[in-house]
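Lab manual, section 2.4: Encoding a predicted structure.

Procedure: take the sequence of the chain (358 residues), apply the prediction step described in section 2.3, and record the output as structure tokens. A sample record is shown.
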Amino acid sequence: MLIAGDIGGTKTILTLVDPKRGARDPLYEHTFSSKDFDCLEDIINEFWKEAGAYPGKLGEMLLEGSFGVAGPIVDGCAKLSNLPWVIDAKKLKSSLGWKSVVLLNDLEAVAWSVSRLEREDVVSIYDPNPIAAGDERRGNIAVVAPGTGLGEAFLSYISSHEIEKGLVQGHIASASEGGHTEFAPADEEQIELLRYLQQRYDHVSYERVISGLGIPNIYDFFHDTHRYPEPKEFREIIVNARRDGNDLTRILLDAARASRTSTGMQCPIAEAVLRLFVRVLGQETGNMALKVNATGGVFLAGGIPPRILDILQEGEFIEAYLSKGRMTGVVKHMPVDVITNPKCALLGAAYYGLRRLP
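Recorded output:
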């Protein structure tokens, strides 16, 4: 039996999986507030008590654990980005008395889910070469995930002729910290944004621009340089939100969407923030596609893309994605999909764990 988990700074989701039923049909699943616990082991013990609805069986099972965590993994040990936790796979295995425990970076877990996604789990925003339902995506795949931060991962495709080398046909997921590479501006406005952010940060990465952490940076740049009109009442909302510790990214995205309607408050600065975010996201998505030669396509994950699906389907994102000079002819054959299943990281951790079972 497998216990899989998606371990985040805000919430932790655990699921009990019977290999015969598969990851999409768990025996039990529960969501916990991560900050209510001192460590992952405490959450697992609480989960185990609740899963005791299967008396006389669970205690006799050999258990394995597979957990996607929001942070880099070094020698089987993870220090979470937004929690004061350190998770050591060996210590956790020993303490729980399990057969094995494996840790994955959360984006690696998302990547493991990609080849198992179903039609209802994704929305296509660019598809130059539609494939029939059930057909396999051949070639490497890139994953770009703007959420609180910017995560990136990729899947290497193992072709049939490589099976002779002992490799299994299909996709193998790998983690990446590509979201922390240097932000490369593509026009004069972005050059000025870079200079502005260089006064704030020693290192200006893509995460400083295209993430939940980055969207307020774009707003501050536009506000401080007086580039776009800003209603007085909206400025007051931002000031109060900062004072109260509220989510500025949500406020800016909601204002931008409302401003695009005839009934919402017109807020040019919020619209400009969203447009720049979409352009830079398109640029970096194209960068990632080229870096891993993503002939199998690119998947956008994370919390932000599903919220702005209609905007991503407009021309600005695709134009930026395809704007690769001599390589435009290469990128134009690489489709882009948005993962809308909010449990893709949990599914990926479960799929990876099931692959390891005998």
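Check your result against the sample. The longest helix spans residues 268-291.
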